[in-house]
């Protein structure tokens, strides 16, 4: 990829292009189904069984022939779920319960509330339709069809779908291994008394949780001092067996910002600085590793910038490494702005709460959009995307990227 001019500011699209260039899904592994939640299917999962496996009743009621509507019929058998019924004798009905197999010869089920019962006989409504209240075999899944496609994120419903086929283990993509670095002598871990000019590390737990929600495995977490040689040594060490190295801070233009130069001395810098707010300082590149190159992402140190950068860049990268296309892009929602703003030469990703009203979604931006105000992220449902050199008035339509749930 061509190097970025030192003065030029890249776009989000250029950053994603550089970040995802030549990325392919990681190798697969086989896991027990009980351990596969939150993983990504490595290949198509074929259905082994019809679901339902047999015609069954959708409710408690009676099975009969629709042609016998309006008549009194003797109740010839009682069919519970899990039992095997006898064929339905002509001119009779069967008492049965939700999920019970429908006897052969019956072509409809009538809910018990519509049936008059006297002793061992029952009378039915005058008009019935064949197929009523019967869940036909294979209605949900047909044996031999694709049950779940490769790249499917195994959430609760997908796990249930697999269990319904009797699946006990499944082939999934390996989780991307991430090394997470925090730069700056002033950044310390919670639990240590704060000294003059120090602050607690907010980015590490925040990014760890986001990365895990994106399907990654955060292995090493390292604090990096404000020293070029140590920064360079740590980058080279953690990149050796990681799929991705992520740092926070140290990518701006200050005398103590060593990450960019250390990256250039070890590997290559693909892109530096973006025309976005928050998140202008951003370093993307490659580091030498055991097998080829390791992706490097240098996020800004300000917590809001790291938060926004994680959603815009870390999420699609983890999706590409996991072979999960649903992580490629954030879901976009059009909403009515309950605020007014104007941007300069950089696009703005504003943190906002989204309310769903009878008139449609309404986005309310947090009043303080400074990149150090992490409280604007705590209650945010969306990032409102305001392009560069754009004025937004209250009541205008705006594009929102859904971020709730990380």
UniProtKB/TrEMBL annotation:
Keywords: Magnesium, Metal-binding, Molybdenum, Molybdenum cofactor biosynthesis, Transferase
Named cofactor requirement(s): Mg(2+)
Source taxon at top rank: Bacteria
SMART domains: MoCF_biosynth
Listed EC numbers: 2.10.1.1
UniProt catalytic activity: adenylyl-molybdopterin + molybdate = Mo-molybdopterin + AMP + H(+)
Domain MoaB/Mog as annotated: residue spans: 179-320
InterPro entries the UniProt entry points to: MoaB/Mog-like_dom_sf, MoaB/Mog_dom, MoCF_biosynth_CS, MoeA-like, MoeA_C_domain_IV, MoeA_C_domain_IV_sf, MoeA_linker/N, MoeA_linker/N_sf
One Pfam family of this chain: MoeA_C
Biological pathway: Cofactor biosynthesis; molybdopterin biosynthesis
Function: Catalyzes the insertion of molybdate into adenylated molybdopterin with the concomitant release of AMP.
Protein family membership: Belongs to the MoeA family.
Name of this chain's protein: Molybdopterin molybdenumtransferase
Organism annotation: Halomonas piscis
Taxonomic classification: Bacteria, Pseudomonadati, Pseudomonadota, Gammaproteobacteria, Oceanospirillales
């Amino acid at each position: 990829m061509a190097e970025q001019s030192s003065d030029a500011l890249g776009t989000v699209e250029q950053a994603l292009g550089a970040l995802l260039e030549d990325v392919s899904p990681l190798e697969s592994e086989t896991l027990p189904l009980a351990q596969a939640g939150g993983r990504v299917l490595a290949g198509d999962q074929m259905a082994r069984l019809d679901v339902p496996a047999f015609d069954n009743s959708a409710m408690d009621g009676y099975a009969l022939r629709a042609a016998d509507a309006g008549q009194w019929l003797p109740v010839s058998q009682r069919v519970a779920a899990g039992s095997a019924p006898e064929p339905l004798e002509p001119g009779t009905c069967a008492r049965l319960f939700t999920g019970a197999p429908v006897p052969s010869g019956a072509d409809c089920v009538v809910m018990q509330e519509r049936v008059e019962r006297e002793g061992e006989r029952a009378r039915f409504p005058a008009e019935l339709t064949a197929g009523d209240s019967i869940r036909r075999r294979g209605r949900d899944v047909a044996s031999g069809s694709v049950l779940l496609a490769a790249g499917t994120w195994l959430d609760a419903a997908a796990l249930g779908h697999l269990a319904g086929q009797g699946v006990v283990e499944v082939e999934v993509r390996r989780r991307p291994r991430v090394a997470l670095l925090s730069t700056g002598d002033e950044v310390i871990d919670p639990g240590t008394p704060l000294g003059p000019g120090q602050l607690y590390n907010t980015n590490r737990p925040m990014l760890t949780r986001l990365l895990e929600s994106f399907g990654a495995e955060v292995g090493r977490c390292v604090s990096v001092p404000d020293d070029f040689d140590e920064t360079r040594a740590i980058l080279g060490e953690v990149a050796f067996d990681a799929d991705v190295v992520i740092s926070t801070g140290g990518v701006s233009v200050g005398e103590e910002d060593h990450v960019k130069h250390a990256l250039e001395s070890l590997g290559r810098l693909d892109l530096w600085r973006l025309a976005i707010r928050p998140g202008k300082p951003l370093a993307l590149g490659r580091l030498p590793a055991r097998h080829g190159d390791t992706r490097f992402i240098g996020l800004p140190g300000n917590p809001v910038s790291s938060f926004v950068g994680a959603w815009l860049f870390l999420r699609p990268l983890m999706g590409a490494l996991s072979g999960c296309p649903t992580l490629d892009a954030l879901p976009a929602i059009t909403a009515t702005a309950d605020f007014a703003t104007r941007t300069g030469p950089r696009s703005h990703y504003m943190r906002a709460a989204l309310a769903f009203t009878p008139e449609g979604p309404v986005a309310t931006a947090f009043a303080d959009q400074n990149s150090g105000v992490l409280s604007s992220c705590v209650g945010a449902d969306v990032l409102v995307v305001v392009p560069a050199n754009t004025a937004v008035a209250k009541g205008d339509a705006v594009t929102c990227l859904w971020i709730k749930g990380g």
